[in-house]
Write a structure and sequence with these properties.
223 residues, Nucleotidyltransferase, domain 5, 7 strands, 30% helix, 19% strand
């Protein structure tokens, strides 16, 4: 079962009339082999915004993405189709650093009237890792750079670029793999339903189950 570690970048807008849109998708496919976890493939695409195709100065300064990058990019439905095709037909886990990426994917799919059933087994690595290292005192979310520092890993690439952020998130994921407990879920189901833990890389007896054991009911299509 592959692990899809992905990151999104959004437009930055001070105009309340326009909500932020996805302009950059980067992802890493982490696979478990005989010698452990390794990066087996990467994916990247820019995305041309539907509502406001001209990037704001704030967006360009924050992400480093240029108007030329965006002008040559596909719109979200085509970019998403390419992303899903790259992920493949095998059951997978999706992992991001923080909850915003999942929420933005769902909102974009609804805006474009696209199915969300492909958003499955989604896990917020930031929340899990932050709670792991902040067991004492007031809980505070850790940034990706902080997480890398705690792992003794230097950030490689440029921050706020989707593929670079995905690659660095994957480094944390592989370095601390035994401390993550991954859940199964499906965005097509009620988002309020709590996900059931069916796989963990930890050694707790109560979560040592097959990653495939309880997946079947999660992939029902709504009729």
């Amino acid at each position: 079962m592959p692990y899809i570690i992905y990151d999104l970048e959004f437009t930055v807008s001070r105009n309340a009339r326009y909500s932020s849109e996805i302009i950059d998708i980067g992802a890493v496919k982490v696979t478990e082999g005989a010698d452990g976890l390794y990066v087996s493939d990467t994916f990247h695409t820019y995305v041309r915004p539907s509502n406001k195709s001209v990037l704001s100065t704030d967006t360009i300064q924050f992400t480093g993405i240029t108007q030329k990058d965006i002008d040559a990019a596909p719109l979200f439905p085509e970019a998403l189709q390419n992303f899903i095709a790259w992920m493949g037909n095998d059951v997978y886990y999706m992992c991001s650093w923080g909850p915003d990426d999942r929420s933005k994917l769902i909102s974009h799919c609804r805006t474009h009237q696209l199915d969300v059933a492909w958003i499955t087994n989604h896990n917020d690595l930031q929340q899990q890792w932050s709670r792991t290292v902040r067991k004492e005192g007031k809980f505070r979310q850790l940034g990706l750079t902080q997480a890398l520092e705690l792992c003794g890993i230097e950030f490689d690439g440029t921050q706020h670029r989707a593929l670079d952020d995905a690659i660095n998130t994957a480094k944390v994921f592989m370095h601390q793999f035994d401390r993550f407990s991954l859940e199964t879920n499906c965005a097509a189901d009620d988002e309020g339903i709590a996900s059931k833990v069916v796989y963990s890389s930890s050694t707790d007896d109560d979560v040592k189950e097959s990653p495939f054991g309880n997946l079947a009911h999660l992939f029902k299509t709504n009729e």
